[in-house]
Write a sequence for this structure.
């Protein structure tokens, strides 16, 4: 967390993130959002298309939280008047500084056409994920996306890359505002694995009730014939 300033080990989190990200990327592919995911290889690995990562983190915000609340003095949990898209330069040593379209254009990190594609895809992903999570009793507060260039000879097109999981999303229970994401680690709240398991359970990736051990993920998937 905090650009590798805070580190820890959370047993089983990679397995959960792998399954959640697979599930979301597969659904995004089905609605025509181009992405790098090909298939899951095992509990901890995915096969993906090789891309040239655009050095920009795209943060989509629906509700005030985290750094936005600190910067602007807006109480966490305040619904924003409209969805806000922010850009950050990918560099842990610099703390991923916030940047503008002017910076992106001036330093050639992405072309204007690429930025149009990135912002359009970010809004499409937000619309889809907001509905997906709302349907299972979760607010999509904000989330981070990364994009890459997929090359065909000399032509590169923008596609969605990285992962989509509770590591890069703020997910709050609709009724209680309980955090079901990496803020539990950032803020020393504990219960990280249980929160990630709850997201997986609501997405239908873990069985209702009983043992939610991440080691049961693959066997559960086979029992369901998927």
């Amino acid at each position: 967390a905090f650009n590798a300033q805070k580190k820890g080990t959370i047993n089983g989190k990679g397995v959960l993130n792998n399954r959640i990200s697979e599930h979301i990327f597969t659904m995004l592919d089905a609605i025509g959002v181009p992405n790098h995911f090909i298939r899951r290889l095992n509990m901890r690995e995915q096969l993906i298309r090789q891309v040239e990562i655009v050095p920009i983190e795209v943060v989509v915000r629906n509700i005030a939280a985290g750094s936005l609340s600190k910067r602007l003095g807006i109480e966490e949990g305040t619904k924003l008047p409209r969805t806000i898209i922010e850009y950050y330069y990918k560099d842990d040593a610099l703390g991923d500084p916030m940047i503008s379209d002017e910076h992106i254009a001036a330093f050639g990190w992405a072309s204007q056409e690429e930025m149009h594609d990135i912002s359009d895809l970010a809004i499409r992903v937000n619309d889809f994920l907001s509905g997906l999570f709302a349907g299972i009793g979760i607010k999509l507060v904000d989330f981070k996306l990364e994009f890459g260039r997929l090359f065909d000879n000399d032509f590169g097109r923008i596609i969605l890359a990285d992962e989509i999981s509770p590591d890069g999303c703020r997910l709050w229970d609709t009724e209680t505002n309980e955090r079901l994401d990496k803020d539990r680690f950032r803020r020393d709240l504990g219960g990280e694995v249980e929160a990630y398991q709850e997201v997986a359970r609501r997405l239908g990736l873990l069985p209702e009730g009983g043992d939610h051990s991440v080691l049961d993920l693959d066997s559960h998937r086979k029992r369901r014939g998927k």
About this structure: The CA atoms of residues 70 and 175 lie 24 Å apart. The chain has a mean pLDDT of 89.
